[in-house]
Give the backbone structure.
Amino acid sequence: MARRAVAGGTARSGRATTVPVSGTALLLIDVINDLAFDGSDVLVAQAEPMALRLSALKRRATAAGVPAIYINDNFGQWRSDFRKTVAHCTSRSSPGRRVSHRLRPTARDYFVLKPKHSGFFGTTLDTLLETLRIRRVILTGIAGNICVLFTANDAYMRDLKIFAPADCIVSNTAAENDHALRQIAVVLKGNVTTSSALRFHGKARGEKGAAA
């Protein structure tokens, strides 16, 4: 299969992949992020173009009727809520402000605050996915070799089908990102094609819809 270089690693590009709208959710992991740590400029440089691609994927998914779920670190702020997290990460002082602003959630999106690496550990994600009758997840975000991979592992153990568009996931280095994508593809049986190859088909439960 052909490959093409993208920020954060190497993405597999190929034939269009059909993703049923019903039973699918888009998970945006730690994209609302201040990226405020020593040496973050390398990750910021990769995350900003990734945010453009993820924003386009989210628009298509939302238009097709796929719910978007933000899974975000609480940065150890146990008295905060997601609104405060968004405000902090989009502020002028935040190195990740451009990424956070571009991927800022809307009123129709869902969100889950996580205390650790996996989006499932110690959160309400299981209950939310069950309520929405989700059988497959599209995993995206930061960082591919940590929180995205940990979440992918837990999704696999719950028998969820995994899509992990390679151009919508970044890590500190391309090598780390490629390793995470290989783990998802080989061990977790995930589909790691690029976001542009994903084609949404069908309609959400109770809604009229078309392919997008």
Observations:
- Residues 48 and 61 are 20 Å apart (CA to CA).
- The chain has one domain: 3-201.
